[in-house]
Design brief:
By secondary structure, the protein is mainly β. The protein has two helices and 65 strands. Among the domains are: 6-22 and 675-766, Immunoglobulin-like; 25-31 and 324-406, no CATH class.
Length: 768
C-alpha cells in the first residue's frame, strides 16, 4: 500500500473540514405558502394548507414547519385538511382529490379517487367524525377509513341513485346529513346508505344549503337565501330559523362544545349555545379561506397574508408567514456569487402580455427579499418583468427586462432606475406607443450592456461603460418592424445571437468590435429547412453556449446544436445549418428529445446540459448530449410540476434551481465549477454519521483534481477525480467495503491551465 509522508502533509494548504452542508442529491423547496386554502387546530399546533403545500405553526414557541413533496407530502395543491384526534392523523385532500394521511412519522397516500374516471370530480368540504373522514364532492359523499387508510364507501342519492353535488356532510348519533343545492338530505345510520332509497329529503323546500354544523346537542343548517343568509335549527324534519343574517354575507364557521364562531364579509362574531352574541370584531376577511378558534385565539387563513392570529378583542397578535418568494411563478432567474435573483412576469406562449405587476426576488443565505410594484415606488406602473442579468462578480448590480415597460436597473440597494423611450435610446413598439419591450440583456467582455429592444425597427441596443448608447437595425426580418426578440447570447469571438421565437429564427450579428462603424457589420438569420439554418420546430427559441463555445438551442421540437458558431460567416452558406444530436443504442437511432418542447437550457461546471421541458420535467445530458444521465419528473422526484419554466445553476454550491408551473424547487447536484486557487476546499457531510449512506463531496477543487483518501496512518483507502470543482467519494475502500469508524485524511492535488500545482489536505470523521 502507498503511504504519504507527514512532511508532505505539512506543505499542503489546509482543507476546511467538518462542514455541515446539504447532501448531494437532496432537494429544497422555495415556496411562498401564501395562498391559504384550509385550516385546523390540534392543541398548540395550527395546520395551514395552501396551494403550495402545508405549514404548521406552534403557538407555544412561534415555530413554523414546512411540508411539501420534498418532505412528507405527495402533492402540494391542498384543497382541505382536518385533524382526527381519534386516529391521531391529519387528513389532507388535494385539489385533484388525491389524499394523504399524515401521522407523526409516516405518510400514507390514497390516490384512488384521483385516478378514477369520474364526472364532477371536485371537493366542496371535508368532515371528520371519529376515525372516519367524509368528503363532500361533486358526485356524492366519499367515506374514508382513516385508521385503515382506505376508501370505505361512496354515497350517491340523486333520483335513481345518480351522482349529486354535496356541499357539506354532518353526522349525529342517529343520522347522516347532506347539504345540497336541492335542499337537505338525511339517512338513518343503521340503514343501507349505499341504497339511494335510504336517503330522504325534508318536506320543507329550502334550497341552496351551503353548510352544516352541530352546537351542543343541536344540528344547524346554513342556507344561502336571496334576501339574507339564514341559520336554521333542525327540529326533527323541520328547519326552524334561528339567526337571520340580514345585511351580512356568511363566509364560514367553527364550533366548539358550546360556542359558535361565524365569519361574515367584514367581521367575526362569537355566539353561545343559544346563539346569543358574546363578542365580535372586525378583521380583513375579503380573502377568507378558512377560520378556526380555540379558548383564547382566532386564526384567519386567507389567500394573501396568509395566516393571522387575533384575540377576542379584535387585536391582531401575530402575523404568520413562512419565508419564501412573494409568488410561486418565476419566469426567469440567475445566480451570481451564491445570490439568486428571479422575476415573476413574462409573456404567455403566444408572446402576449400577461400584465402581471412587477415581482422581483433576491435569495441569499436562506433569506428572501421581495421587491413588489405596489410597495416599491420606483416599480410603480411596471409589469411583466421577464429577464434577469447580473453583472459578473457583483450580485448588487442587476438588470431586468420587461415586456412593455422598458429596462430596470438595480445598483447597490438603491431604488430601481427605469429606462425607456423617455430617457434613453430605447424605442416604443412600432404599433403600440408607450409599450417599450425589453427582452434579455447581457454584458460582453468589454463591459458593454447589450439590450434586446423587441418589436422595433432597432432590435438591438448597447450601452457602453462610459454611458454612450447605440442601436442597430437589421434587414431581412420576416415580420419587419413587428419582430419579437427575446434571448441574447454572445460567443467567444463576440458574435451576438438573438432569438426570434415567433418565427423560430435566430439572428447572428457581427459588429467586428467597432461600435461606431456600421460598414463592417455582418448579419445572418438562421431559419427552418436544410440549407437555411435547419432549425427544428415551429415556434419558441431558447439558447445557451456551453463551455466549448458550442451553441445549444431548444425549440418546440427538441434540441439543435451549432458546433462552430464563430465560423458562421466564413462557412459556405450550405454548411451553416444547425445539427441534431443522434442517439444510437445499437439497434435504433433517434433524434435527441425530438417532439419535446424545450423551455430552457443551462450548462453546469462539467459542461453537462440541464434541459427544461414543457411537460416532461428536467433532463440532464452528458456534455456531448448523447447520453441522458438523469430525468426528473413528478413521478420520480419532488418536482411540483413537469412543466419547467426556467433553470438557474449556482456554480459555487452545485445547487440547481428549477422554476416550475407550481413553484420553485432546487436540487444539490454533484458538480460545481472548478476553483483555480483551491484555497477554500470543503468536505460535506462531515462528520459522516452512521445513518448517512450517500456520497461525500469534496468541493472547491480544480477540474480533474486527483483526490486520495488515506487512513490516519497514511494507508491509501481510495482515490477519485473531480468533475468540475467537486469530487465524490462513496465512503468505501478499493474493495467496495464501507470504511469503519475513524478519522480519514484527504489529499487533493490539481494543475491549473497555466500548469501550476495546487494542493490541499483535510480530514473526514466517520461514525459507524
Amino acid at each position: 500500500m502507498k503511504r504519504f509522508h507527514s512532511l508532505f502533509i505539512c506543505l499542503l494548504l489546509p482543507l476546511y473540514a467538518f462542514s455541515q452542508l446539504k447532501p448531494i442529491g437532496s432537494w429544497t423547496e422555495h415556496l411562498p405558502f401564501k395562498k391559504g386554502r384550509a385550516l385546523d387546530l390540534n392543541g398548540d399546533l395550527v395546520y395551514a394548507g395552501t396551494t403550495t403545500g402545508l405549514f404548521t405553526f406552534n403557538s407555544s414557541d412561534n415555530s413554523i414547519s414546512r411540508y411539501s413533496t420534498v418532505n412528507r407530502l405527495n402533492e402540494i395543491n391542498i384543497n382541505a385538511l382536518e385533524y382526527s384526534t381519534a386516529a391521531e392523523a391529519l387528513v389532507i385532500v388535494y385539489n385533484n382529490l388525491n389524499i394523504d394521511v399524515l401521522r407523526s412519522s409516516t405518510t400514507v397516500n390514497i390516490p384512488s379517487i384521483r385516478d378514477a374516471s369520474l364526472q364532477n370530480k371536485f371537493l366542496n368540504s371535508l368532515y371528520i367524525k371519529d376515525e372516519f373522514a367524509y368528503l363532500s364532492t361533486g358526485f356524492g359523499i366519499v367515506k374514508l377509513n382513516i385508521e385503515r387508510s382506505e376508501i370505505s364507501e361512496t354515497y350517491q342519492f340523486a333520483p335513481g341513485g345518480g351522482a349529486i353535488n354535496v356541499n357539506a356532510t354532518l353526522l349525529d348519533d342517529n343520522f347522516i346529513y347532506a347539504a345540497t343545492d336541492q335542499g337537505l338530505f338525511y339517512a338513518d345510520l343503521n340503514s343501507n346508505l349505499l341504497d339511494f332509497n335510504s336517503w330522504l329529503s325534508l318536506p320543507q323546500q329550502i334550497n341552496n344549503i351551503i353548510d352544516l354544523f352541530s352546537l351542543g346537542n343541536e344540528t344547524y343548517v346554513v342556507a344561502d337565501r336571496a334576501t339574507s343568509d339564514t341559520i336554521f335549527r333542525l327540529d326533527n324534519t323541520t328547519l326552524v330559523p334561528e339567526l337571520a343574517l340580514s345585511g351580512k354575507n356568511y363566509l364560514d364557521n367553527d364550533t366548539d362544545e358550546d360556542r359558535l364562531l361565524v365569519a361574515y364579509a367584514s367581521d367575526v362574531s362569537i355566539y353561545d349555545a343559544q346563539l346569543q352574541s358574546i363578542s365580535s370584531f372586525t378583521a380583513p376577511l375579503s380573502n377568507l379561506q378558512d377560520i378556526k378558534f380555540n379558548s383564547s385565539k382566532v386564526y384567519i387563513l386567507n389567500n394573501f397574508d396568509p395566516l393571522l392570529e387575533y384575540n377576542y378583542q379584535g387585536d391582531r397578535t401575530n402575523f404568520i408567514k413562512p419565508k419564501g418568494p412573494f409568488e410561486e411563478n418565476i419566469f426567469d432567474m440567475q445566480v451570481e456569487d451564491g445570490v439568486l435573483w428571479g422575476v415573476s412576469g413574462g409573456y404567455d406562449p403566444g408572446l402576449n402580455n400577461q400584465f402581471r405587476g412587477t415581482r422581483i426576488y433576491r435569495f441569499e443565505n436562506g433569506e428572501w427579499l421581495s421587491y413588489i410594484d405596489f410597495s416599491e415606488p420606483s416599480l410603480n406602473g411596471t409589469f411583466d418583468v421577464m429577464s434577469v442579468n447580473i453583472r459578473e462578480g457583483n450580485p448588487n448590480e442587476v438588470y431586468f427586462g420587461s415586456w412593455g415597460t422598458g429596462l430596470l436597473e438595480f445598483k447597490n440597494n438603491t431604488p430601481f432606475t427605469l429606462y425607456d423611450e423617455t430617457n434613453s435610446i430605447l424605442k416604443d413598439r412600432t404599433l403600440w406607443a408607450g409599450w417599450c419591450g425589453v427582452g434579455e440583456t447581457i454584458f460582453d467582455e468589454r463591459g458593454n450592456l447589450w439590450i434586446v429592444n423587441s418589436y422595433t425597427s432597432s432590435l438591438l441596443s448597447v450601452r457602453t461603460p462610459s454611458n454612450n448608447w447605440s442601436q442597430f437595425a437589421f434587414g431581412g426580418l420576416a415580420s419587419g418592424e413587428e419582430t419579437p426578440a427575446t434571448e441574447i447570447r454572445i460567443s467567444d469571438a463576440g458574435l451576438i445571437w438573438l432569438a426570434l421565437p415567433r418565427d423560430n429564427h435566430i439572428l447572428v450579428f457581427d459588429y467586428n468590435q467597432t461600435l461606431g462603424n456600421p460598414t463592417d457589420d455582418r448579419t445572418y438569420i438562421f431559419k427552418q429547412g436544410v440549407g437555411a439554418g435547419n432549425l427544428p420546430g415551429i415556434r419558441g427559441i431558447t439558447m445557451e453556449f456551453d463551455l466549448d463555445n458550442q451553441l445549444w438551442v431548444g425549440t418546440s421540437d427538441g434540441i439543435a446544436v451549432k458546433f462552430n458558431p464563430d465560423n458562421v460567416f466564413e462557412e459556405n452558406i450550405n454548411q451553416r445549418d444547425f445539427e441534431r444530436i443522434l442517439i444510437d443504442d445499437g439497434e435504433n437511432v433517434e433524434i435527441l428529445l425530438a417532439g419535446t418542447e424545450i423551455s430552457d437550457i443551462e450548462i453546469d461546471g462539467a459542461n453537462r446540459k440541464w434541459v427544461a421541458t414543457n411537460g416532461s420535467g428536467v433532463f440532464l445530458l452528458s456534455p456531448d448530449g448523447k447520453e441522458v444521465l438523469s430525468q426528473f419528473t413528478t413521478d420520480n422526484s419532488p418536482l411540483f410540476s413537469d412543466n419547467i419554466i426556467s433553470i438557474a445553476i449556482d456554480d459555487q454550491s452545485g445547487e440547481v434551481y428549477f422554476s416550475t408551473a407550481s413553484g420553485l424547487i432546487s436540487y444539490r447536484s454533484d458538480v460545481v465549477s472548478g476553483n483555480e486557487s483551491m484555497s477554500e476546499v470543503k468536505v460535506f457531510p462531515n462528520p459522516v454519521r452512521e445513518t448517512y449512506n450517500g456520497p461525500i463531496a469534496i468541493d472547491g477543487l480544480l477540474d480533474q483534481t486527483t483526490v486520495k483518501i488515506t487512513d490516519i496512518n497514511g494507508r491509501l483507502i481510495n482515490e477519485v477525480e473531480s468533475t468540475g470543482g467537486r469530487a465524490l467519494w462513496n465512503g468505501r475502500n478499493f474493495e467496495g467495503d464501507r470504511v469503519s469508524t475513524g478519522v480519514y485524511l484527504v489529499f487533493a492535488s490539481g494543475t491549473t491551465e497555466e500548469d501550476n500545482l495546487r494542493t490541499a489536505i483535510g480530514k473526514i470523521l466517520f461514525i459507524r
